[in-house]
UniProtKB/TrEMBL annotation:
Belongs to the ALG6/ALG8 glucosyltransferase family. It is found in: Endoplasmic reticulum membrane. It catalyses: an alpha-D-Man-(1->2)-alpha-D-Man-(1->2)-alpha-D-Man-(1->3)-[alpha-D-Man-(1->2)-alpha-D-Man-(1->3)-[alpha-D-Man-(1->2)-alpha-D-Man-(1->6)]-alpha-D-Man-(1->6)]-beta-D-Man-(1->4)-beta-D-GlcNAc-(1->4)-alpha-D-GlcNAc-diphospho-di-trans,poly-cis-dolichol + a di-trans,poly-cis-dolichyl beta-D-glucosyl phosphate = an alpha-D-Glc-(1->3)-alpha-D-Man-(1->2)-alpha-D-Man-(1->2)-alpha-D-Man-(1->3)-[alpha-D-Man-(1->2)-alpha-D-Man-(1->3)-[alpha-D-Man-(1->2)-alpha-D-Man-(1->6)]-alpha-D-Man-(1->6)]-beta-D-Man-(1->4)-beta-D-GlcNAc-(1->4)-alpha-D-GlcNAc-diphospho-di-trans,poly-cis-dolichol + a di-trans,poly-cis-dolichyl phosphate + H(+). Its main location: endoplasmic reticulum. Coiled coil: none annotated. GO terms for molecular function: dolichyl pyrophosphate Man9GlcNAc2 alpha-1,3-glucosyltransferase activity. It is a multi-pass membrane protein. Keywords: Endoplasmic reticulum, Glycosyltransferase, Membrane, Signal, Transferase, Transmembrane, Transmembrane helix. This is Alpha-1,3-glucosyltransferase. Its EC number is 2.4.1.-.
Amino acid sequence: MEKWSLMTITVLLALTVRWAVSLGSYSGAGKPPMYGDYEAQRHWQEITYNLPIRQWYFNTSDNNLLYWGLDYPPLTAYHSFVCAYIAKLINPDWVALHTSRGYESQPHKLFMRTTVFVADLLVYIPAVILYCFSLKETSAKKKASTCALCILLYPGLILIDHGHFQYPLSLGLALWAVLCLSHGWDLLGAVAFCLALNYKQMELYHSLPFFCYLLGKCFKKGLKGKGLVLLVKLAGTVLVSFAACWLPFGTDVEQIMQVLRRLFPIDRGLFEACMFSSPTHCPDKVANIWCSLSVLIKIKNVISPRTQLKLSFAVTFLSLLPACIKLTVQPSLRGFKFALVSCALSFFLFSFQVHEKSILLVSVPVCLIINEIPFMATWFLLVSTFSLLPLLLRDGLLLPYAVTAPAFLAACLASFSVLEKTSAEDLQLKAFSLSLKGYVSWFKSFPRIVRSLFLLSLALMGALSVLSAALPPPQRLPDLFPVAVAVVSCLHFLLFLLYFNLVLLWDPKNRGQKKIS
């Protein structure tokens, strides 16, 4: 009973923080003609409610795809339709075709914010709570609630979902998939992940760990017996799940092709969200390798779009290959969670058409291992929030950022004593350090070095945050601070990618083979 009381307090605190953030501004508020992501979500409700399904993804006189055209999978469209149906009952003006474009009012803002709250309460938060209760490492009464508190107070997700404006459904469904696999419910996990992927195509970041883990499990059971049966069941489950999501579009090949073209706009170039035509002019700075390199090398001017696509694919594939091989050969729940982090980070750093918000696809899996490596997880989650700073400043979310980030750090310090968890064993690097014994003399002072780097990193991020918010940039370098934030974050992420791969690859004990119960 006591553990549920603690968890109830945790959830209430998390909801209070979300409510406080939601009182502020949102993406594109009062900024015509395109406004922002808030208007995109409202516009999709307008389109899905007023137009037949066959027109949702096509450019027509009633559906101008240049104005926030649908570019997410069918499940997002169905969700928009449900929200629009409720909105129509409250105020038809909110979703009126054409005339509702750019609609802004306090009642409508309350409605839109409420839809995000409902999605959080029904999908994301329950998955976090059940995950924390199921961890063997957090079986003590207070441990589950403290772990849940740190995950639910992660500022990046709160600021994007309840500030900028976004729904947490795809990440919540992915969490349910991880939870199902943790309990050995492989078919239910496959269904949940298929739903996540059919809500947002960016869940492809997590697809290879799911595929490799389940395939490795089939191999381990034997492909001439139980393993083959499981493989057939999984294949059937995936096919049925996709067929159900795409059923309204399945009668017309052209419909399917048009949806796919909207989901994967490869003709836009390597990093349309970060077009460094010059090193000082970029609307959205993404902390990945291509945008960071483009400060020095104008990649889009040197390499053709098709070559960019091939280069991106090759580098992404090579960077995630070791983790995928390891997980397929030695499938374990622990390895699966670390592979989710490693593969998602590889996609973010090296893949095609990355948005700065995509870092959340890495951050949520990192939240799942915060109880195992609290120091590095806390550090990563702070850097991931910092990488969103230019977007948050543009949305008027400086105050929520300035409050939630230190509050999250304080919660992690209180819950896990992260500054004391810096030894090679605490960082899950004991096996790797043993392999270097006799070659690296400074490994004894490793904890002190890591703590110093962490504090230096915090100071750098704090200084850049203050400079970005308080000082106007030089006239000749108008995007100096956003570019600096992107490059600093990218350097952090490259080091984190190396670290997570070392932990995953140097794990001979395969400890994650034990089921979470």
